[in-house]
Amino acid sequence: MVILKTKNELKTMRRACQISAEVLALAGAAVKPGITTGKLDKLIYDYILSQGAKPSFLGYGGFPASACISINDEVIHGIPSHRRVIEEGDIVSIDVGAVYQGFHGDNAATFGAGKISYEAQALINATRISLYKGIEKAVVDGRIGDISQAIQVFLEEQGYSVVREYVGHGVGKSLHEAPEIPNYGVAGHGPRLISGMTLAIEPMVNIGGPDIKVLPDGWTVKTKFGGLSAHFEHTIAITSQGPVILTEPLGGV
Asked: What is the spatial distance between Cα 163 and Cα 214, in angstroms, rounded to a whole number?
């Protein structure tokens, strides 16, 4: 069931989303060669608590950290570790959420560590743009498929592959709510978009094929054949004035 949010609920949720956006920007700025993913996770944990919120991911389904931090060919759900050192040229996807007064914000971005390859930067740029292509279609009386197709068509025209096993989702009092938002699909299909819906749109994009594998830790998802992967996500609200990005950092990223 899709849960619509009232104006007052959206005000509370906006704060959760701003905390999520702030901590993502903070962690992204800290991505440099030599830092561990465990240190990034501690930075994220400390900041979220300092804002009177809690990490959405910590303990969720048994996940052991405050953020998913995935490097290079890791698509999503990478587990931070104080033994995992980020190296020059890595690309680092950080997915993080905060829960504030019962509402969740959820966002993600991929950052380069030091000097990265042209191929890696092009992937990051395309994935970011695809997110906004999808958001443009998130309008009242549209369909989920409009968002999905906009993302898929843009990325495939650039020669990239869209991960199909994992999708975007509704978000609110629960971290994952209905509806699901695939990053592939057909315009005009799927649930209708209604004012008050809040959605986490999140393209996950590979160089090479879309195939993935899950590591023995039960969490980390990697590209099957070792190609780089990037991930961007915003939480948005559907309104009569158009889509509102709740996780747009006030100071920018």
From this structure: 13
Specify burial of residue 148 (Cβ count, 10 A radius: 0-12, 13-18, 19+).
buried
What residues are paired with 162 via a beta bridge?
205
Amino acid 60 reads Y
Closest CA to 3 of 220, 154, 191, 250: 191
pTM assigned to the model: 0.97
* Gap between the Cα atoms of 212 and 149, Å rounded: 21
User: Taking Cα atoms as reference points, which of 114, 116, 112 lies closest to residue 94?
Assistant: 112
In 3D space, the residue among 87, 2, 1, 73 whose CA is nearest the CA of residue 37 turns out to be 87
Say how far apart CA 163 and CA 86 lie, in whole Å: 24
- Average pLDDT, stretch 51-58? 98
**């030091």: which residue's tokens?**
114
- Give the pLDDT confidence of 82-141 residue by residue, as tens digits: 999 999 999 999 999 999 999 999 999 999 999 999 999 999 999 999 999 999 999 999
| Cβ neighbours for 182, distance < 8 A, ≥ 6 positions apart | 144, 148, 164, 167, 168
- For helices 118-136 and 144-157, the axis angle rounded to 10 degrees is 150
Residues 84, 37 contacting (CB under 8 angstroms):
yes
User: pLDDT digits over 197-223, tens only?
Assistant: 999 999 999 999 999 999 999 999 999
